[in-house]
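Data availability (excerpt). All sequences and predicted token strings are deposited with the supplementary files. A representative entry, DUF1570 domain-containing protein, is shown inline so that the format can be inspected without opening the archive.
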Amino acid sequence: MAVVAAAALCAPGLAQAKWLKAESPRFIVYGESSERSLREYAEKLEIFDSVLRYKHGMDLSGAPPRKLEIYLVADNEGLREVEPALGSGIAGFYSPGMGDIFAMAIRDREPDFVVLHEYAHHFMLQYFPYGYPAWLVEGYAEYFAQTVINGDKVEVGRPNNVRSYSLLNAHWLPFKDLLTKRTSDLKTGEMDSFYAQSWALTHYLMSDPARNKQLDAYMKAVGAGGDPAKTMEAVTGQDLDALQKAVRRYAGGRLAFASLTRKGFAPPQIKVEALPSSADDLLLAYLRMRSGMSKDEGEVFVKTYVRPRAAKHPGDRLAELALAYGEVWFADRAAGEAVLKRMIAADPKDADALRILGVSRVIEAGEDGGDVRDEMQEGGKLLARAHAARPGDYRTLYYYAISRQIEPDYPSDNTLNALSAAFDLAPQVPEVRIMFARALMLEKEWEEARVVLMPLANSPHGGGAAEAARKTLEQVDGEIARVKGKAAP
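Structure token line:
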């Protein structure tokens, strides 16, 4: 076994390559690192996913509908190649958007707090897509982010020294505020207390089997629309003042954590391969464009950065995709489409080229003087081909649904099915969630639309998308009340 591993480390291409790709059942990890460190990182992520499944009584061999991509870079400057506005102290981030869903972190570390925290959010939205209150969303992520995987030991729910310090030194929020407020409702200076108390309450509930059952009951009841504060009193049998005192006592003592063994989880199959030299020039540039840029910023970036670097790699697939994407979205649409057409001529089942060309036709329909309906239909056909070539891409399904908005019966059953599939694949993406909810509203499926909107409306980090979800939710709640009023005797 050791001989095989040594041979693999010295394999041609892997030893010299700057960027490697490790693919496991649930993750795709890209790194400027050694094969060994990349493999170990991917393996620990797999174990962390298995820990989450184990704690929820899920099938340990289960896999998500879409693997999460994680990019490991040398330092903060590497992170800022994709997100230039990041502060110098940031060690990683998570980005769910219409360009892609991915995380970035600094390499040569254990899967750190940021990645584990954000993956816990990602996991919760994938498998428990309910309108949980903000304290539970953040407390859940804070609790599991303290998982430590070291040798054969897997320790879950270790103490968080930063949050413990806040609990000792910061003013405690009343538990009614903690349980019911969104982070946008908090005053300046209350955020540290909110995160610390959310972590402490989650730790208190998860650390004891009986209390863990109470948390399960709470999640089910609140997920079904129960009041966050009243439900907590009901499941714990304590009023909120008594519960707050109990949590303060618990947090001030010696915190328990779960110790598992790595041997309890099947070792994942991980394949590592070298990326072409074009990745050195364009992997992060392509990611930066997909993560979102303004039109002006993107045009300058394509002209000064992407074009000259793509020219160094003629015929290279990554170079062609990055160039075509940049041209279509930011610079010269016709030039980008020409690249995509060449790729499709060479491979009629190139799902990425078909998708990007289809999206180009949809988003630019009518802007060049062409017929909007014709270009929408053409884009829809290209996206249908992309879906046939590679099912399971939420972006393909989302833009296909947009192409159908010209139809008089929008949303048809077929379009609703496409949006539902996109939502199942990527419930983390705000645009997908809002578009699906609005399509349901057109069908007067008010209750289902409410379920779709609630997690985003309650999201502590939802920003403008969360505000849009809350405004849409007001419309939905108004219609639900109107329908119930009509039905009342």
